[in-house]
Protein 1
Amino acid sequence: MTARENAKVFVDSNVLLASYDGRDEVLQTAARDWVKWCWQKRAGRISTQVLNELYEGAVRSFGLTALTAITPAHVRLHVRRLREWQPPHLDRYAVDGAWDLQDRHGLTYWNALIVSSALQQSCTHLLSLELPSYAQGGEIDGIQIISPLSLRPQDLDNA
């Protein structure tokens, strides 16, 4: 199997938000390329935490801007569509795992919960704009942390 056939990419809410945000066109394009790749390869994974952060962040950040004018109904439509990635419910294993990751790696609780959810779903990669600063592009418990700006989806195909 090639990397693309068995890759599972957990997508953090900050990457999904960047795919909507036109203020940084380079970042928006990179984020959109990754989201598109995840849909095409059926490799995208998220959590209910990500869906909630996406909804709140999009409504708060883009709902009042005349340039982007994204309505709550529009955001809800995207959140509903992302449910096709079948995010697991937050359970005690994810929380206990997050606490362990927080203690061992010095992550914030919310970032540890993201990593824990990715581990629960057997993800190979975690796409985030925040976590690379923790892992410096490395791994946390076997999950490669990547930024949409440092690796293109086609690079993962060729890995």
Note: The domain at 3-157 is CATH 3.40.50.1010 (Rossmann fold).
Protein 2
Amino acid sequence: MKNSPKPETIFVLLVGFMFLQTIHFSPPVANASGSTYAVGIVDDAFEPLHINVTTGTTVTWTYVSTGHEIHTVTSPYGTNQTQTGTPLINSGQLSPGQSFSYTFDQPGYFPYQCQVHPTIPKMNGWVMVTGNPVTPPSTNNGPGNSWLLPAVIVALAGTLAIVTWTLVRHGRHHKVSNQ
């Protein structure tokens, strides 16, 4: 009778082999805790491919090679979307020499890819963001005084109406008393 390996042994060997493959073939992970971090788009690859940053970090992807292809930096379909369903990270088309920046204000896992080359493994990366949520700076120039301009216009119009009415009334009064 032949000695065949036990199913447990086969399982342990398969898991061990898969673990070794992941260590051996995983691209290096870059860590950043500063306020900005740069990623290069070189030929058909993001370099570095995987990034760990803290909240508030701005990542800038720059198409540094002189290729002739268009690339994008875009959240894959079904991940990290805005409330309207558009990709959260969305550079649009980038040509050589162009850059795209995104500030990560929320912690989480943010995969990104080139929409033109989604099947190329080195064009599918991720950003892992840790830390507490950061409130982005306001793009508003004030505390929301949308009522201020109409109120000023109404006040000026009211003042003009009162002054005009007073002058007209005062002019009639002088005409009547002079006759």
Note: Residues 17-29 have pLDDT under 50 and may be disordered.
